[in-house]
Amino acid sequence: MGRLGLVMCDAAMSFMWVWAGALVKLLVYDALGLGHRPGGEALKMALVVGYMFLFAWLGHVTRGGAYNPLTVLSYAFSGGPEGFLFTALGRIPAQVIGSATGVRFIKQTFPSIGHGPRLSIDIHRGAWTEGFLTFMIVMASLMLKKKDPGSFFMKTWISSIFKLALNVLGSDLTGGIMNPASAFAWAYARGDHITLDQLIVYWFAPIQATLLAVWTFGLLTEPKSKVQKAEENKVKSE
């Protein structure tokens, strides 16, 4: 897939991602009326894991399509400047546009759907929360990509459960969204997309955390130098 195709794929997946979350909410809370009852929460989690598998499969068949700027940034930070520029100037804007378009159609179709994630704590704790959650999910994604537990199913299962757990952990504080494009889309629909809270908590902190996670992962998995390998071989031979 060429670069233009990848950009279009990112926009489409971002559009579908916000719709998937909205449809789950409509089914559990409105259509079935389960609300926050245990059965409703269990069904919601099962559906979330289900559509995470769907999007993981879409990313696989499109050879890199993504709906989250943090996903493409984590790989761009590991590459050269050319890849970073393509991500920053092409893929991320496409994801933002796709998410914003999706939310716009959601609000037009289902006006009572809600307002998306909101910050319920002060800006500093919000930034730390989104930063921590982002750091953890990026580290997990990089480890799964490198280690490969053995199959697409197992890798996706671990990633989905981990993402869901982190989302629940941060849901009452920042929404636990860990996706700047989706956060921007809902904020744009509300008209508060250029506030300091939005920029620091949902953009600046997650991007910094992604960079820190990539750096930490590289430090922990740094390949052994020739000198270290020579010393190890010498010890083994003795």
UniProtKB/TrEMBL annotation:
Topology in membrane: Multi-pass membrane protein
The name this protein goes by in its record: (wild Malaysian banana) hypothetical protein
Record keywords, A-Z: Membrane, Transmembrane, Transmembrane helix, Transport
Gene3D superfamilies xref list: Glycerol uptake facilitator protein
Subcellular location: Membrane
Cited PANTHER family: AQUAPORIN SIP2-1-RELATED
A GO CC term attached to the entry: membrane
Superkingdom: Eukaryota
Transmembrane segments: 12-30, 42-60, 127-144, 164-188, 200-220
Pfam families: MIP
Record flagged with keyword Glycoprotein: no
Source species of the chain: Musa acuminata subsp. malaccensis (Wild banana)
